[in-house]
Amino acid sequence: MLPLPSRAIARGPSNPSAQLGCSKILRKSPFKLNCKKIDHFQKRERDLIHNHVQKIREELLVSKAELARKAKVSPLTIDRIERGINCRLETKRKIILALGYKLSDKEKIFPED
């Protein structure tokens, strides 16, 4: 059997917190690491964008999946928008048209943008 090159042995994460996971290191190590888990979809209330997508979608008796197909976006995107997470202007345009509104009716769906 041939010995492995030295690069292959040294490969891998050099950060011990990446190898064992942040919480395990914090329990085992006397050193405090800055290991904050950031969930990009858990926003503070002030960061959320108020919209009427869910209300209008339910009034039209349209499912999230159906609206996503019409707007040519993923159902996860529709879910995020309904929860108030901001999206691109192009995505807003697709949703407005998929709901059967004109682009000039943007304020009815996405107020204060």
Structural class: mainly alpha
Oligomer: single chain
At CATH level 2, the architecture of the domain at 45-109 is Orthogonal Bundle
Total number of strands? 0
Biggest β-sheet description? none
Here the CATH topology of the domain at 45-109 equals 434 Repressor (Amino-terminal Domain)
Order of helices and strands: HHHHHHHH
Q: Which homologous superfamily in CATH is the superfamily of the domain at 45-109? A: lambda repressor-like DNA-binding domains
Rough shape? elongated
- Provide a count of the helices: 8
Question: What distance separates the N and C termini?
Answer: 65 Å
Radius of gyration (CA) equals 23 Å
Percent of residues in helices comes to: 40-55%
Mean pLDDT: 77
Q: Approximately what portion of the residues adopt beta-strand conformation?
A: under 5%
CATH class of the domain at 45-109: Mainly Alpha
Ranges with pLDDT <50 over ≥5 residues? none
